[in-house]
Amino acid sequence: MTDVSAPHPTAAESGAAATQRFVTDKPASLAATPKERVDAIAREVLAAVHDTIRKHRVTYEEYNALKAWLIQVGQDGEWPLFCDVWLEHVVEEVAHADRKGSKGTIEGPYYAPSAPELGADATLPMRDGEKGTPLLFQGQVRALDGTPLRGVKCESVHADDDGYYSQFAPGIPQWNLRGTITAGADGRITIRTIQPAPYQIPTDGSCGKLIAAAGWHAWRPAHLHLMISADGYLPITTQLYFPGDPHNDDDVASAVKPELMLELTPAADGNGRQTSYDFVLDPA
Ligand code: DHB
Ligand code: FE
């Protein structure tokens, strides 16, 4: 069997990759936001920080430690990580509050566009002897009234059995455990893969320093990332979770929702586990 062990990734490596990915894929600008709105939001954020400084009588020593830490987050490339772990879940909550279909959750920093096209019955690219419990995922994508949708595309990505993502941890082939699934007229998708392991956000960088200094933990429960779209419907970005994971109740990124829990049974062919999950999209 091929040795599939990868060197342990460092925060600097995955942080730099996540920052590069964000800058390349999501060029962002404040230009479209009216200045009244920027003024209100910036002022309220600053006022909340001022109140916290007063309430806790923050010292000059602590203020300088904060400045050093903020500088280090940038040097480690960990702003995408910081934002996606501690802020994105509320942005997602606000953005999708009016949706009637399936729940979304955070995207996180490890998406990469243009994953290989695999058809409707997909085996995600994996290494020879990829470690982990085989997983068969089946799903159907429907409208609110239950009609199967046409033109369904599902991008799927997840961590490997060590909790590492291709393109963000070293030594993993580029498209490992990443794929684009295109359903037929019945809106059904099949994904053959392995079950991901829980993921720990990098502990050796500045986000890890905050976690250690505050006595928190760095774990996200194991999850599958799925981005589902269909012609004429609002796309959803979501994650699905595995029952019994010790971190389902205290995800560092606060992204777990009860509706996103999978039910697993032993696979019919005796090889690993199987699960199904149906997605309902809101009309555009
Ligand atoms: C982070 C990582 C993830 O895999 C994820 O799904 C969400 C957030 C992160 O490290 O920020
Ligand atoms: Fe993830």
Number-wise, the strands total: 12
Helices and strands: which structural class? Answer: alpha/beta
Radius of gyration: 20 Å
The global form is globular
Distance between the termini: 48 Å
The number of helices is: 6
Low-confidence stretches: 1-6
**Which ions and ligands are bound to the chains?**
3,4-dihydroxybenzoic acid, fe (iii) ion
Please give the domain count: 1
Q: What is the ordering of alpha helices and beta strands?
A: HHHHHEEEEEEHEEEEEE
CATH superfamily: Aromatic compound dioxygenase
Provide an overview of this structure.
- The chain has 284 residues and is an alpha/beta fold.
- The chain has a single domain, classed as Aromatic compound dioxygenase (Protocatechuate 3,4-Dioxygenase, subunit A), CATH 2.60.130.10.
- 27% of the residues lie in helices and 20% in strands.
- The strands form three sheets. Strands 1, 2, 5, 10, 11 and 12 form a six-stranded mixed β-sheet that branches. The protein has a four-stranded antiparallel β-sheet with strand order 4-3-8-9, with no helix packed on it.
- A hairpin with a 6-residue loop joins strand 8 and strand 9.
- 3,4-dihydroxybenzoic acid binds next to helix 4.
